[in-house]
UniProtKB/TrEMBL annotation:
Top-rank lineage group of the source organism: Bacteria
InterPro entries, alphabetized: SecG
Protein localization: Cell membrane
Biological processes annotated in GO: intracellular protein transmembrane transport; protein secretion; protein transport by the Sec complex
Residue ranges crossing the lipid bilayer per the database entry: 53-72
Keyword presence, Glycoprotein: no
Name this polypeptide is given: Protein-export membrane protein SecG
Keyword rRNA-binding among record annotations: no
NCBIfam families: secG
Chief localization: membrane
Function: Involved in protein export. Participates in an early event of protein translocation.
A Pfam family assignment: SecG
Amino acid sequence: MGFSIALIVFSLLMMMLVLMHKGKGGGLSDMFGGGMQSSVGGSSVAERNLDRITIVVGLLWFACIVALGLLMKLHS
């Protein structure tokens, strides 16, 4: 039950984080200070931190899926 709730929470976080990433026309990350600095040179600190957080949440999401799969296999 706990892994199911964690999977729902991580899924919602992943959706939010992916939507915050900047695409070709900008993104919600511009609201947090990534707009002007990233056009001047390279990616801003906000974009890099957003990338790192997205990777960590993605790995946790994947771990929850694997754990749920193993639990379902053991209980069958």
